Amino acid sequence: MLALRPNCECCDRDLPPDSRQALICSFECTFCRDCATARLGGRCPNCGGELVARPVRPADRLARFPAQAERVRRAQPCPAATG
Length: 83
Fold this sequence. Notes:
Blueprint: E1 22-24, E2 30-32, H1 33-39, E3 52-53, H2 59-62
Antiparallel strand pairs: 1-2, 1-3
Protein name: DUF1272 domain-containing protein
Pfam family, one: DUF1272
Organism: Teichococcus aestuarii
């Protein structure tokens, strides 16, 4: 089951479970759409994997299967925007 991490690992922007702005890689590294496109070029800086839209868990399932509360930040800063 997806952890649904609550924030962008680059900028720490809040990404609630119903956010359409959250993108993840296959390891569930989580980034906001702005960082994923403008800074990361659609690739996870941790594993190099593709960043894709994170599914939204239906609201009626969140009570039984809540999103992760622990915030995750990268140990190293995200790359600077290119272009």
